[in-house]
């Protein structure tokens, strides 16, 4: 804690961090006196003192409620991937990976929530539990397909006692139930045999929503990896004449190591859908990668033309669905915790879903993910600023305070003398805690320099120059930096362009290289929390233009922050865990000048949860030794009306 408080921090907060040490000393002195009166051994006293201080720190942390209020999550315990979102008979449904027995991963079920408007939600009892031999080790991720003349059908991954993963099907037990509470597993599960052994590296899971092909057959893809040590992930295609009998067709798509250097040997949670006249294929492998391209329905061939990342922060295992009411594709993603596991156990929950986002593809074949417009229904009291001056001293937004906010900032063209500016959120009274959005101006091309790592796209550019590589970075919504490698080097006879989604591990000499850095915005979390610092070396970057007006939307929801640049042109999501109850302010600062922000709007945000009329089954905080007996208990609770959670 001493190192954390006296490390390399800006001058404006050094004094307050020294004050924190004095506060801790004030806390430690009486504790030490008490301990020494009980324990005569100084060594034992020190051990007990450390324990008491940790308990005190935990008590301070408990004062600050970290549980998000307008992000979807179960009432308690662990959640991860969103599964099978859909619209059916006037209701939106969201399923999700769920452990009902604790706040860590394991015992995978499908949790279930329902909404009338994609904004306000009710929690329902879980939809699927691991109670058959083919899924006894977990109900892993999958999708829902609305089958004409049948209705919604769940595809999920069942894991048997040997860890073998197979695709299974479930259908509603009562088609007239608008909430679709109960689901029945298909008697012939699993419906999809494993593909050839060559294609099962790392598993075989996460089936997509299916589509009807021009050949009259159903088609769908699922994720796996090439089992020959080449570290190649892929999506495999299967087909069915009747939706229940499936056979392996071919490799639908796979990573090309020369193009996707960061893509590993397994594609999780693939997704495939049409939007804005093109098709998007997405896979999860580190970040959530997307590729945009053309799809030939006659031969089921997909050819991609551009690629990128949904979110350059904490966002994974995403899933979309088609919303027929809004005629749009809606995206959800899992936002994992980033604090120590012990905190999850203490507070009893871990994980949340992102805000729902609307997917579009722009003229440069770049995917945008904008926050759902209906989220404005959650807005409450508001504060508005016109012509707000930002200078070289920190300017606080007067009258603004909160941990659940939407902040909209209409930025002008930034004057050329402004080298950088900072927006601080969740600022404590004495600035001992804050989370910083740092806007930095571009760095001109640097000859003889390589930006090591951070690549998300690497490809040859025959007969082209460093300026061509720079231009390719400029049109990408994910590229924040680039490196051009001259031809006839160890990389081959052609020049190579490396596009980067972050700044890697630094600059290094390279005689054949030229590198540049775009104007960026990044999230600096070094001072987010005195107790649970996160990301001290894990800054998140997104491109940002100083030379044109921009709109920045920041959603703060206690321990989660989502930042949208220009309606989702770029997105940054992260977790933050302020420990001071007064870490509620907002302030701004400009380096080397002054400029005026035309408009700032701040809204207090309400909760998405409405009073549930459906009883929630609250299991014990341990894993029962017999899942089948537990399922009988659930059946009994449903039969007799259950009890309020």
Describe this protein's structure.
The chain is mostly beta strands and 645 residues long. The protein is 13% helix and 43% strand. It has six helices and 39 strands. Strands 23-39-25-35-36-37 form a six-stranded antiparallel β-sheet, with no helix packed on it. Strands 24-38-26-27-33-34 form a six-stranded antiparallel β-sheet, with no helix packed on it. A hairpin with a 2-residue loop joins β1 and β2 (91-99). α2 packs across α3 (42-63). The radius of gyration is 26 Å and the shape is globular. It starts with a helix and ends in a 6-residue tail after the last helix. Mean pLDDT is 85; it is low at 1-30 and 612-645.
Anisotropy-based shape = globular
In what range is the share of β-strand residues?
Answer: 35-45%
Ends apart, CA distance between termini: 39 Å
Radius of gyration computed on alpha carbons:
26 Å
Average pLDDT over all residues: 85
The portion of residues assigned to helices is 10-25%
Question: What's the main sheet like?
Answer: 6 strands, antiparallel
Number of strands: 39
Count, helices: 6
The strand order across the widest sheet is: 23-39-25-35-36-37
Query: Pairing-aware structural class of the strands and helices?
Result: mainly beta
Low-confidence stretches: 1-30, 612-645
